[in-house]
Amino acid sequence: GTGPLVFPFGNGESGAHAAKFALPLAKAMGLSIEFYHTTWTNSTRKDAKPSEHMHAGAIALRRQLEEQANALGIAFNTTVETADDVAEGLIRFSLRKGACLIAMARGRNTRVGS
């Protein structure tokens, strides 16, 4: 398809590792990237935007991913949302964006899938 590559990221090193493969792949395929992060609402900041609920590690990784995309000349957008279920949020987002590919990182605690 002609849709973007969706790259979900969290707050761990697996996202940085996966980016080493996903960003060059997007560039080679001529795809834009939709960086996607799902966060939970911080109960002390209920009125804040979802991006203000992000873990410090996720904020740092977001900056790193955006810098890498800029350096490679890849068009990108970053979306941060809250969702009751991370997987469902990712699927709904990917469908809304018409994604042709989802590049998933594999964390240390992954039990199912890869």
**Gap from first CA to last CA:** 23 Å
| Helix and strand sequence | EHEHEHE
The percent range for strand residues is 15-25%
Number of distinct helices: 3
* Strand segment tally: 4
Question: Rg from C-alpha positions?
Answer: 14 Å
| Secondary-structure content class | alpha/beta
Note poorly predicted spans.
none
In this structure, how is the largest beta sheet organized? 4 strands, parallel
Strand adjacency order, main sheet: 3-2-1-4
- Overall mean pLDDT stands at 86
**Helix content percent band:** 40-55%
* Approximate shape: globular
Key features of this structure:
114 residues; alpha/beta; four-stranded parallel sheet; 3 helices; 4 strands; 40% helix; 18% strand
Lay out the secondary structure.
Layout: E1 5-8, H1 13-29, E2 33-39, H2 56-72, E3 76-82, H3 86-97, E4 101-102
Helix pairs in contact: 1-2
Summarize the entry for a quick read.
This protein has 114 residues and is an alpha/beta fold. The protein has three helices and four strands; from the N terminus they run βαβαβαβ.
Structure description:
With 114 residues, this protein is α/β, with parallel strands linked by helices. The chain has helices at residues 13-29, 56-72, 86-97, and strands at residues 5-8, 33-39, 76-82, 101-102. It has a 4-stranded parallel sheet with strand order 3-2-1-4, sandwiched between helices. Helix 1 runs parallel beside helix 2. It is globular and about 45 Å long. The two termini are 23 Å apart. The mean pLDDT is 86.
